[in-house]
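[[Encoded backbone]]
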Amino acid sequence: MKILIAEDESVARLSLGAQLKALGHEVIAARDGEEAWELFGVHGPSILITDWMMPKIDGLELCRLIRSGNRAKYTFIIMLTALSGKGSYLEGMKAGADDFVTKPFDGDELSARLRVAERILSLQAEVTQLEGLLPICSYCKKIRDDNNLWQPVDQYITRRTEASFSHGICPECYENRVKPELEQLKVRRYGVKR
């Protein structure tokens, strides 16, 4: 996974980066929250591990910036902090953090938290994919909407997007369906094939 680290202490940043690389992750490192915000926009990481207290933009503000963007792809945020207590935890969650690791971090604990993050991101991707599926009738090709009403595909899509449709008949349908129907109509109307 692509992981962005935001940590102002160089020894902690290098140590964390080395451990993440050893676990097989692609690591992008930032010296502060401002640089992390810039790198976030460029790289779109799956996971952000950020220190709470940093110069320029702190971890809380970085979380808020990321969560305010309404991005299609979710980024799991782990907050590194020496702060403890329920109040700090709730403040971090309110800002948008998903998980917390106490500094100095324990490698095994961080590895376990990353496995949880990977599971959550995998489930998020699956939900997004399932939301993209449309219930469609296999016979008439109408789509069921949110109100459990069935409507033609073109109407359904036109109401929800900027798409518009021009109707026509593809060559295969013309040869296999339309042409035989026209021949049958001629036989019924005139009694002979023309």
The beta strands are 2-6, 26-30, 47-51, 76-81, 99-102, 143-144, 150-151.
